[in-house]
Write a structure and sequence with these properties.
The protein is mainly alpha-helical. Helix content is 49%, strand content 3%.
């Protein structure tokens, strides 16, 4: 009887640990489902498109690189990766990652945010997000201090 109870307790403990490890693996944080400093190609693409920097051909190459980087991120983390690109995130080690885009002359950060929110849209990378929408709702209209 005691051994059956011990086996049942161990089985319950193992199932709890398995569920916990599965949920940790699904977190949208750098180093898990999102690479550290994600979407470097998207940074260049957003600045090029919104701020008017760089030639048109280079912009198409940057767009392709951005879309490849974005498609490599699971659908449920794409908008979070774009948010990290815009706002940054402090890691467990206390290091700021991302947050590369900032106000530039004649290139407001909010305009950059709105464009970044649409990178998943059919006119850009045509990728799905967790909510299935054509853009990242978490970036649209959100004001963040620089």
């Amino acid at each position: 009887m005691a051994s059956n109870q011990l086996i049942l307790s161990v089985a319950v403990l193992l199932s709890v640990l398995a569920a916990a490890s599965a949920s940790v693996g699904d977190q949208c944080v750098p180093g898990w489902a999102i690479p550290h400093n994600p979407l470097q190609g998207c940074h260049s693409y957003v600045v090029s498109r919104i701020c008017g920097a760089g030639p048109y051909l280079a912009t198409e190459v940057m767009k392709e690189q951005c879309c490849q980087e974005l498609s490599a991120i699971p659908a449920y983390c794409r908008c979070e990766a774009l948010r990290i690109l815009m706002d940054g995130v402090v890691t467990a080690e206390g290091v700021l990652e991302g947050g590369l885009l900032q106000d530039l002359p004649r290139c407001p950060r909010q305009t950059q945010r709105n464009f970044a929110a649409n990178l998943v849209a059919p006119g850009e990378c045509s990728l799905m997000t967790i909510h299935g929408g054509p853009y990242c709702l978490t970036l649209v209209g959100r004001q963040v201090a620089v």
